[in-house]
Amino acid sequence: MLGNVSGLLNLIFFVALLTYLCALFAVQLVRGDLPQEDENGDEIRMSFFTIYNAFLGMYQIFSSENWTDILYNATKYQTPYNVGWVSAMFFIGWFILSNFIVLNMFIAVVQENFDVSEDDKRMFQVKAFLAKKDLGAVTGK
Question: Is 130 helix (H, G, I), strand (E, B) or coil?
Answer without folding.
Answer: helix
